[in-house]
Design goal:
Distance between the termini: 73 Å
Radius of gyration: 41 Å
Helix content: 25-40%
Largest sheet: 9 strands, antiparallel
Structural class: alpha+beta
Number of strands: 29
Length: 606
Amino acid sequence: MSFKQFRLWLLVLLIPVAFGLGMMMRGEDSEPHEAYVDESPAQRWTCAMHPQIILPSNQQQCPICFMDLILLEEDSQSGLNPNELSLSAEAIALADVGTSTVQRRFVSRQVHLVGKVSVDETLQRNITARFGGRLDRLHIASTGVRVKRGMKLAEIYSPEIYSAQAELQTAVKALAAAGEDGASSSVRRLVDSAKKRLRLLGLDEIQIANITEGEEINEHLTVVAPFDGVVIRREATEGQYVKTGSVLYAMADLSSVWVTLEAYERDLQWLRMGQTVQFSIRSNPGLQFSGEILFMDPVLNEKTRTVEVRVQVNNDDGLLKPGMLVSAQVQAVLDASGLPVDLGRVAQPPLVVPASAPLLTGRRAVVYVKLEGEKQPVYQGRVVQLGPRAGDFYLVSDGLHEGEEVVTRGAFKIDSALQILARPSMMMAPGGSDTPVENQDDIPSFDLASVPEEFQHGLSRLLDAYLVLQKNLAGDDNTRSAVAVIEVNDALASVQEQSAQLPVAAIMQWDALYAPMNRAVQTMARSTDLASRRVSFEPLSDNLWLTLEHFTFPQRKVVRRFNCPMAFDNKGADWIQLGKVTNNPYYGDMMLRCGSEIATLGQDEN
């Protein structure tokens, strides 16, 4: 390198250095400027549905569900307990928080029962042979025949009946020969004894009078029907020799029948003697019948966890046949003490809250109570003890007072906000061991000893049809969802037919689940748009999940239950799907990923 080139490179290197030194020197000579410091606290924003999302600006949307963000109010929470949250009017509006007043009122609940028609045991009799002999003729040779009082049933040949008739006629002749004045008391006692014997052998007064008057003795005795009724069982065969006391027929008067129902122990508090029961027969659900509760078994069946409830029903028209399956309902009301309201006494209404108020998790129920704060409302989480559910309300046993305001819409968002502030969620018990479960009014699990194979395959087909419908609703496909509804309807009808093979206790469960599913499917079948189908899709999903929980069938894959808290004006709704990635059928492409998995059933093939 030449000296000239060396000087050029040195100049290039020194120019930046000189420029930097000059700036430093200028800075030292110039007047200092005060730095601007924003002393106002930085605001942070979060998603009410996904509290793990915290962003510095509300100009963005939640990257998961794409909903607008709400202000994370961190400074307004000072001085509050860990289970309390203060919200401004703006935050309340954005979170769409709604409240309702705790009140005392009578609420009703419809208790569903299933059972069958049976014979009224008080109107059933066995027709027996009162003496031994040969059964020479059966006038009624088959069961199911209606007979009238006095109708001939059978004829029995017996030497015993012949000798008893002959004895009476001999005694009568002896009495006649002695005359009224000369007849001894012993002869009169002999006549009376012979008549009594014939009565015990089954002869009526007319037959005895005829024998007394000298009518020819018959070697056969005719057995007649003692009342109007139906022959429900034949025990003897023509030509058979029978002994004294042998059962020839079983007869029943079917003008009044019993409906024997099975009630789960959780429903017993709603039932009492004398209540009116409305029911229909499964073979013709359009016919409606009614009767009164006549008897409730004092002993619980430990296998089925049910109690027998007996209803007496008038059956003059003969439409109710013993053995028919029935579906029944009792409209019941509880008072403040938890007893069914009796129209004959004054009762105090119970304390109730809307069913949307409690957050149910494990064995715990949590409500958020609105309190008056110094500057803005405070929402306090409180564990309460609930009674049974009655329609759209829960009875409250402890934890709330009349007149308090409870959150009925947005409670989940308030609980999420507490988690954002690193406070414990009220939905988790100490130690975090509780997991969300169904509400206390759900049908209890029933361990089926054996589920018919056809019923199992029917449930599997129903689930497959449902999953196709869920996929098409999530895909905003109106045409294909309409076709999928038809497939769900066919599959559901098939399972309903096969349910007749289940035990009565299992039929109780199925009928309670089938009814709301069928209503939902029929409504969807009449719908012409996605919005209407999505409304009915919720009860179908809820009751299908309960069906999968309580009835075993071959599951090849894991089915997952998802929840979207924003559905139906933030009331929330569940659905079932296979994959782990959220596919929301209530919003479709608008908010396809809004929602999270809350439960699973089945096991992976791996």
